[in-house]
C-alpha cells in the first residue's frame, strides 16, 4: 500500500478494528454486485470508496429517466446507456484504484457457478425472485456469503446468509415462495432515500464480513420502517424443509 492509498483510506485505517490488515483484506477481495438499480447504486459506490480490490458488476438493463430518482450511480447523461457502463464510469471517477469488471447479460446457473469460483462475497441488489433464488442457491453450493437487500415503498430489509456458518439459514428460508409484483417499484413506488439506507447497510455488512469485524447479520433479518424511523432485528432460523440448506 503506497502513500496515496494510505491517505485515501486513512480514516478507515485509523479504526483499530480495521487497521492496515483489514484494509488489505478489502483490497484483496473480489465482490460480485448483482443489479445496479436503487440498491446496487449505493452498494457499488460505497464498496468502491471503501477500497474493495475488484468489483464485478452484473446488470442487463439500460438507464431510464425514471431510474434517476433513486439510482444514484447513474446520471442524466447516462439515460439510454447500459447500466453497467454508466456505473463503471461513475466508479472509475470515484476511485480509480478499484478494478471494475462488467457483465451485461442475465447470468445462467452455469455461468454464475463459474463466476463464484473467483468471488469472495456476493451482494444481491436485484428486484425479482427468480434472480434472488438463482443467486442464493449458487452461493450456497459454492460456500460464498451473500448479502441480501430489498426496498419498496417505505420499508426495507437486509440479511446476510453465510454457508460457512452452520447456524445460517438461506434466502429460501425467509421466502420459500415469492411474488414479483409486490417487489415492483413501477407498481408500488419507492421513496428515494430508502434504497440508499438499505444499500449502505448491505455495503456495511459486506465490509464487516470481509474484514471479520463485529457481529454479522447471520441468523437475523433487519427491517427498516422509514415512515416511523424504526429498525427491528428479528431472528431467522433454518427451515428444516428448505430444499437448499435444510436437513
Summarize the structure.
With 247 residues, this protein is of the alpha/beta class. It has helices at 3-8, 10-13, 19-28, 40-50, 83-94, 109-116, 129-142, 171-174, 185-188, 192-211, and strands at 30-34, 54-58, 99-103, 121-124, 146-152, 155-161, 220-225, 230-235.
Protein model, in words:
It is a single chain. With 247 residues, the protein is of the alpha/beta class. Helix content is 38%, strand content 18%. The chain has helices at residues 3-8, 10-13, 19-28, 40-50, 83-94, 109-116, 129-142, 171-174, 185-188, 192-211, and strands spanning 30-34, 54-58, 99-103, 121-124, 146-152, 155-161, 220-225, 230-235. An 8-stranded mixed sheet has the order 3-2-1-4-5-6-7-8, with helices on both faces. Helix 4 (40-50) runs parallel beside helix 5, helix 4 (40-50) crosses helix 10 and helix 6 crosses helix 7 (129-142). The longest helix is centred in the C-terminal third of the chain and has 20 residues, at 192-211. The termini are far apart. The mean pLDDT is 95.
